[in-house]
Amino acid sequence: MFQLILGQYLLREMRSYLSSVPDVGKHEIAALKAWVEQGYSPYSNPSHIADEQGRELPFIQAFRTEQELGENGRTDSHE
Question: Is residue 77's pLDDT more than 50?
């Protein structure tokens, strides 16, 4: 019963969070939904990426940071 209540709470939290991120993409929503379905808050992230004050970034912000770091970390093999 507790898991059901927790799941319902997290889904409501996810909907509320998504309303504050107007430019979210479908792939970001899918990744967030998978995260929340595992029992995690949308206000946390699997990599525990934090801001300058040490506060953990919300999922989408961390997801985008990881994407950006991945793109910037690639090297062009044609140079």
Answer: no
